[in-house]
Design brief:
Blueprint (H helix, E strand, L loop, with lengths): L5 H13 L13 H11 L11 H22 L1 E3 L6 E8 L4 E3 L2 E3 L6 H10 L1 H6 L10 E7 L17 H13 L6 E4 L1
Parallel strand pairs: 2-6
Antiparallel strand pairs: 1-2, 2-5, 3-4
Helix pairs in contact: 1-4
């Protein structure tokens, strides 16, 4: 690239990729702030011990997420209270690219650092949009099992993991420190 250093080029391309990020696409569910607003309505007004500010409430929720994450990675599963389901970690082996709808689907994650280095060095690879993938031997996934749940309309419930949980899973996958898991083929 003319006139740009490697670092400047990477930041420029990443800024183009991030446009629109941070916009929550899920509109029909509650987030932490909605739960905090509900907490403000139902907390006892006269007792100052029950009064939590937004940042205190948020810290408690994030601390609980951290504990849940640690339990998931040490035991392999987390059971939710009131029989709301189970979150568990699975290991998938034999991951091969396959054709779907006439296109090649590659199930590997993109290694953006090496891809941007390739695009910086090779003009032809950038024009063809050649992508470098991470070739991990095993892939782990976090799944939500609703069976055994004691609530109605189970098919409409979905558990979406946080970005923090996904990043932590990826770090542990690369470091090869995941031991407790259920084996799933496919």
């Amino acid at each position: 690239m003319e006139g740009l250093t490697r670092r400047e080029y990477k930041s420029q391309v990443q800024q183009k990729r991030i446009v629109g990020a941070g916009i929550n696409k899920i509109r029909n569910s509650y987030n932490i702030y909605n739960y905090y607003c509900n907490y403000k309505k139902v907390r006892p007004k006269r007792d100052p011990h029950w009064y939590l500010l937004w940042w205190q409430y948020s810290e408690i929720i994030h601390a609980m997420h951290k504990l849940m994450r640690e339990e998931l990675f040490t035991t392999g599963s987390v059971d939710f209270p009131y029989k709301l389901g189970t979150l568990y970690l699975v290991k998938k082996t034999n991951i091969l690219p396959r054709f779907k709808d006439g296109k090649l689907k590659v199930p590997y994650m993109v290694n953006w650092d090496k891809t941007l280095d390739l695009w910086y060095d090779d003009e032809e690879a950038r024009e063809k949009k050649t992508i470098v993938y991470l070739e991990l031997k095993n892939r782990h996934a976090i799944l939500f099992r609703k069976k055994g749940g004691k609530y109605k309309n189970q098919r409409f419930y979905k558990f979406k993991t946080t970005r923090e949980l996904g990043h932590d899973l990826f770090k542990r996958m690369k470091a090869n420190t995941l031991d407790n898991f259920f084996l799933a083929y496919g």
